[in-house]
Amino acid sequence: MESVEMKVEMVGIHEKRVRKSLSKIRGIEKVEVDASSQKVVVTGYAHKNKILKAVRRAGVKAEFWSAHNDILHAYASGSSRIMRINNYNFF
Which Pfam families match (predicted)? Predict the structure, then answer.
């Protein structure tokens, strides 16, 4: 089983659109949506490009999640924690 993390622009009813578009794909076991960090985690056996394509077809801006997105989210949330990625500390 594979997990695919995506950054998805969550505005208004986009969460419902995302869930509906992903429900049509065979092999998806679970969809987790975090609207505050604009992150969607899809777990299952579907190919990651097929998942991304389905979300984009729903009219929602989406891209694969990267470590860069973690840094931006920590900065934007005003978190005072230290984040460590690849032996580098980010404040």
Answer: HMA (PF00403)
